[in-house]
Amino acid sequence: MFYVVAYDMPDTRRRTKLFKAMKGFGRHTQFSVFECELNTKGLERMVKKITSLIEPSEDNIKVYTLCKSCLGVVRVLGTAKLTRKPETLIV
């Protein structure tokens, strides 16, 4: 599945730690936004890592799930690019 993770964190230290951790799960595409293509275990690991780094009473993290059919209707404008890996085609 394809996930978009967006976060808003007032603490620079926690935000930097989350940014570094998220690099292991997906691609940084915009300020405080990552695009991740993960299986169920990868998603669980990512959520566990995020949970360990945030302060729930102060930080705002959203994980959006995009199914394959939803990816087909994503509008990408300007210089933006959807960073989804190309599908493997075996003939």
Number of helices: 3
**Largest β-sheet summary:** 4 strands, antiparallel
Please tell me how large the radius of gyration is. Answer: 14 Å
Question: Roughly how much helix do the residues carry, as a percent range?
Answer: 25-40%
CATH class: Alpha Beta
List keywords for this structure.
about 90 residues, alpha+beta, 4-stranded antiparallel sheet, disordered C terminus, Alpha-Beta Plaits
How would you sum up this structure, described in words?
- The protein has helices at residues 12-22, 40-53, 68-71, and strands at 2-8, 27-30, 33-37, 60-66.
- With 91 residues, it is α+β, with helices and mostly antiparallel strands.
- The chain has a single domain (2-71), classed as Alpha-Beta Plaits (2-Layer Sandwich).
- It is globular and about 35 Å long.
- The chain has a four-stranded antiparallel β-sheet.
Layout of helices and strands:
Layout: E1 2-8, H1 12-22, E2 27-30, E3 33-37, H2 40-53, E4 60-66, H3 68-71
Antiparallel strand pairs: 1-3, 1-4, 2-3
Helix pairs in contact: 1-2
How do you describe this structure in short?
The chain has about 90 residues and is an alpha+beta fold. It contains three helices and four strands, in the order βαββαβα. It has a single domain (about 1-70), classed as 2-Layer Sandwich (Alpha-Beta Plaits), CATH 3.30.70.
